[in-house]
Design brief:
With about 375 residues, this protein is of the alpha+beta class. Helices cover about 40% and strands about 15% of the residues. The chain folds into 2 domains: about 15-145 and about 155-210, Cytochrome Bc1 Complex, Chain A, domain 1 (2-Layer Sandwich); about 240-370, Metalloenzyme, LuxS/M16 peptidase-like (Cytochrome Bc1 Complex, Chain A, domain 1, 2-Layer Sandwich).
């Protein structure tokens, strides 16, 4: 079984949707999925310019924890009492807040996103408590998640730091610094709000406009993500194999996604991971079994024999991405937060025109292994 984390694809048929970029540069997308039995409302905050550094390792994750509580620290309880569910996630390039609700509850969900966006000034005690919670999360994380973090750090150094963060660094965070970071990070040009489900497009778009339209841009000095190349001397520290990819837009990225899926399909219980990004990243394939020699598998197998399988694996995911509101909102929201011009259709077209030669090159690129 292949488990895909933050990934994939686009839509074969174009369902009704409306993308709007507001004058303040916040982006809205409402997509109508008539057959869906719930609605996903997702706020994506582009934080590529606020990449983790050793001195601030995990600030974004800490902010995610605080903001998900809402202004009264009871946002999740308030939503759950109405049958709605809140989830939050910090990725390498973004922070996501998602709410699952019924079509009649979309207004409430959008209001809750407004609560999440309000800056909070927390206390040092709050920071200490939440840092310990993150410490517990780190202790309980899955083996593949840790191996993935090792691969990123080895590949990209400081700019590949694990978004979970360092609890020792977090416990010393200054409350005012955290608040200022949140205000800068939620400047409207960094925001994308996507609503996907059985909703009316125009009224829903107006609701989101009312929330985001009045937000003012915040000037700040930003530092762009610096990922300048894969370190081929990565220590062998786990049962993971990695391939460096460029931007989501590049044909080579689509080829390596297809090759990664095909390689993962060769071993039962395998994990596949790719997070769509406008900057370089990694496609990862791995397993909890440390004895697997991934490089040997890649060298031994003839990629030509797996090209058709790769196409089928990609096609299998397309249907999921077109019908599940949370997956639709996650993919489109993540891309729009990075750039309003980023669309899943770019990846789909690259996959549809993938050649055997491109697939062979992509297959061979999986030559960096990480072992524990």
């Amino acid at each position: 079984m292949i488990l895909a984390a933050t990934f994939l694809l686009a839509l074969q048929a174009e369902p009704p949707r409306l993308r709007t970029q507001l004058p303040n540069r916040a982006t809205i997308l409402v997509e109508r999925l008539p057959a869906a039995d719930y609605v996903s409302v997702q706020l994506w905050i582009n934080s590529a310019s606020f990449s983790d550094r050793f001195s601030t390792h995990g600030y974004r994750h800490l902010l995610e924890h605080f903001q998900a509580k809402g202004f009264d620290n009871r946002l999740d309880y308030r939503l759950e009492s109405k049958g709605m569910l809140l989830d939050a996630e910090t990725t390498r390039d973004a922070i996501k807040f998602g709410i699952r609700c019924q079509p009649s509850q979309v207004r409430l969900a959008i209001q809750a996103i407004g609560d999440v966006l309000r800056p909070r000034l927390v206390s040092k005690t709050d920071i200490e408590i939440e840092s310990n919670i993150i410490r517990e999360e780190l202790a309980l994380r899955a083996a593949f998640s840790q191996l993935s973090a090792d691969a990123w750090l080895k590949a990209f150094g400081e700019s590949g730091l694990d978004p979970y963060g360092n609890p020792d660094v977090l416990s010393k965070a200054d409350p005012t610094d955290l608040q200022n970071t949140w205000v800068e990070m939620t400047s409207p040009e960094n925001l994308a709000l996507v609503v996907a489900g059985n909703v009316e497009i125009d009224p829903t778009t107006e609701l989101v406009k009312n929330l985001l339209g009045a937000r003012k841009a915040v000037s700040s000095v930003t530092v762009k993500a610096d990922r300048r190349g894969l370190n081929d001397t990565m220590a062998k520290r786990g049962s993971v194999i990695a391939s460096k990819v460029g931007s989501f837009r590049e044909p080579g990225t689509a080829a390596r996604i297809a090759a990664g899926l095909a390689i993962a399909n060769l071993v039962p219980g395998t994990y596949f991971q790719y997070g769509p990004s406008n900057v370089p990243g990694l496609v990862l394939v791995g397993s909890d079994e440390k004895s697997i020699n991934w490089v040997d598998i890649v060298v031994r197998e003839n990629p030509d024999n797996h090209f058709s399988v790769a196409k089928k694996l990609v096609d299998r995911w397309v249907e999921i991405q077109t019908t599940d509101p949370a997956k639709v909102a996650a993919l489109r929201g993540r891309l729009l937060a990075q750039s309003p011009s980023l669309r899943p259709e770019t990846l789909l077209e690259n996959l549809r025109t993938l050649t055997v030669e491109q697939f062979r090159d992509a297959w061979k690129s999986f030559n960096v292994e990480v072992r524990s």
